[in-house]
Structure to design on (419 residues):
C-alpha cells in the first residue's frame, strides 16, 4: 500500500500514544509460564503482539481477549506445545524471547517468520541455549531462521555476545524456570535499557539473580513466575516519531500516556530533543513539546537504536552537523536502517554520510518531496512520513501497511493533528 503525504503548516493538539510493545511482549511471555491467571491491562494490539499471542498459544497458554485487557492462563512453567511450529511473522522480539521459553519443553519446536525474520541472526542465542542443554538445528542460511529447538534446559555455564539485547533477555526469562543453576558471561551487550526492562519484570516477580555490571549473571534454578495484573505504559519508541515531528515543524504537541519514570530506554529521546533546542514540559502522564530552532548535536544511540531513523530526519532540519554514532546494531533490525535511511533521505535531498556505526547529517533546513521506499520497515516508514510534513512538494511512501507491526493508528493520528 502506498501513502502520499503533503507538507503541513503545523501540528497541533494532543494524542494518546499506544502502549509499549516491549512491555506487552514481556508481559505475555511471563504470563504464559506463570502459575495462574494474569490480566494485562491496556496491551498494545499490533501485528507484533498478535505474533506473540500466537506463540504463547502454541506453548500451551490459554487466552481470553477483552476490550482493554488480555487474560492469560499460564502453564506454570510446564510447556506442552499444542503445535510444533511457531510463526513469529515480523516480530524479532517474539522470535528471540520465546525461543528460550520453548527450550523448556522436551518437544521439538520450529521457529520461522517472514522474509525479514529469516535474515535475523540467531546463532549466538541458540549456541547459549545449546550450552544449557537444548538440542538445536538451524535450517536457515547464515545462522538465521528457521531453526528448531528441543529441551529441556538443564543449566550450566555459557558465554554470549549480545549485539542485540534480546539474546540476553531471552536467557534471563527462561533460566529461572529450569532445575539447575545458570551462569552467563556477557562480553558484549548493546541496548542495555531493554535488559534493565526485563530485570524489572523479574524483580516484580521476586525472581532471584545476581549480576556484576551486566557482564556476568548468576540465576538460581527452580524458581517460578506468579500470576499478575498489570497495566502497560505508553511506548516511547512510538512517541519518538511525534516528538520529532513537533521538533521539525516548530509545533506544540502534547503526548499522553507517557511516564518518564518507566524503564524504557527511548525516553532519552526527550532529552536529546531538548539538547537540540526544543522546549519540553514533563507531567505525570504526559509530555508537551514545543519545536524551536534546532542545532546539530552528537548522540550515542547504543542504548536507543530504534530512535535512529526519526533522529536522522530531525537532523536534516538542524543547523550544523549531527552525528548519530555507536549504533551498529541498527543494521540488524527489520532492515539495515543505517544504509536505508541514508538512501531514502538522499532521495529527498539530504546531506548525509554513512558510518560503520551510524550517520553524519549536515542540516539544510529543508527536504524535497520524492517517491521513497519504506522497505516494509515500520520505523523507516514513520520516519519518512514525518520528513514529508516539512518537505517541498508531496512525498509518496510505499509499503506503508507495515506500520501495523507496532503502530496501526499512526497515519490516523498524524492526520488528526495536521493543520
Amino acid at each position: 500500500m502506498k501513502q502520499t503525504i503533503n507538507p503541513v503548516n503545523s501540528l497541533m493538539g494532543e494524542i494518546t500514544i499506544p502502549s509499549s510493545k516491549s512491555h506487552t511482549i514481556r508481559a505475555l511471555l511471563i504470563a504464559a509460564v506463570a502459575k495462574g491467571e494474569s490480566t494485562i491491562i491496556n496491551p498494545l494490539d499490533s501485528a507484533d503482539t498478535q505474533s506473540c499471542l500466537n506463540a504463547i498459544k502454541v506453548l500451551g497458554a490459554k487466552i481470553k481477549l477483552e476490550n482493554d485487557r488480555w487474560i492469560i492462563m499460564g502453564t506454570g512453567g510446564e510447556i506442552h506445545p499444542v503445535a510444533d511450529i511457531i510463526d513469529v511473522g515480523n516480530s524479532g522480539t517474539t522470535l528471540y524471547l520465546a525461543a528460550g521459553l520453548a527450550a523448556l519443553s522436551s518437544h521439538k519446536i520450529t521457529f520461522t517468520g517472514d522474509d525479514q525474520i529469516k535474515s535475523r541472526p540467531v546463532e549466538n542465542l541458540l549456541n547459549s541455549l545449546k550450552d544449557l542443554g537444548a538440542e538445536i538445528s538451524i535450517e536457515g542460511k547464515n545462522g538465521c531462521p528457521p531453526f528448531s529447538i528441543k529441551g529441556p534446559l538443564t543449566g550450566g555455564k555459557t558465554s554470549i555476545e549480545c549485539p542485540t539485547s534480546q539474546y540476553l533477555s531471552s536467557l534471563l526469562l527462561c533460566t529461572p524456570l529450569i532445575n539447575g543453576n545458570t551462569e552467563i558471561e556477557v562480553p558484549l551487550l548493546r541496548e542495555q535499557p531493554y535488559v534493565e526492562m526485563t530485570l524489572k519484570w523479574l524483580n516484580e516477580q521476586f525472581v532471584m539473580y545476581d549480576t556484576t555490571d551486566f557482564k556476568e549473571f548468576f540465576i538460581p534454578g527452580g524458581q517460578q513466575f506468579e500470576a499478575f495484573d498489570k497495566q502497560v505504559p505508553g511506548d516511547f519508541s512510538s512517541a519518538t516519531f511525534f516528538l520529532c515531528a513537533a521538533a521539525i515543524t516548530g509545533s506544540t504537541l502534547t503526548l499522553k500516556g507517557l511516564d518518564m519514570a518507566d524503564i524504557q530506554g527511548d525516553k532519552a529521546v526527550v532529552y536529546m530533543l531538548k539538547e537540540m533546542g526544543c522546549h519540553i514540559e514533563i507531567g505525570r502522564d504526559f509530555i508537551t513539546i514545543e519545536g524551536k530552532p534546532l542545532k546539530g548535536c552528537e548522540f550515542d544511540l547504543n542504548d536507543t537504536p530504534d530512535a535512529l531513523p526519526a533522529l536522522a530526519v530531525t537532523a536534516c532540519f538542524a543547523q550544523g552537523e549531527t552525528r548519530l554514532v555507536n549504533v551498529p546494531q541498527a543494521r540488524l533490525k527489520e532492515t539495515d536502517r543505517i544504509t536505508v535511511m541514508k538512501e531514502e533521505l538522499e532521495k529527498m535531498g539530504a546531506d548525509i554520510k554513512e558510518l560503520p556505526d551510524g550517520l553524519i547529517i549536515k542540516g539544510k533546513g529543508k527536504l524535497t518531496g520524492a517517491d521513497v521506499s519504506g522497505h516494509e520497515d515500520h520505523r523507516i516508514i514513520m520516519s519518512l512520513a514525518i520528513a514529508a510534513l516539512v518537505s517541498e512538494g508531496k512525498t509518496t511512501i510505499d509499503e506503508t501497511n507495515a506500520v501495523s507491526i507496532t503502530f496501526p493508528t499512526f497515519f490516523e493520528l498524524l492526520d488528526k493533528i495536521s493543520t
About this structure: The two ends are 24 Å apart (CA to CA). The first helix runs from residue 21 to 33. DSSP finds twelve helices and 27 strands in the chain.
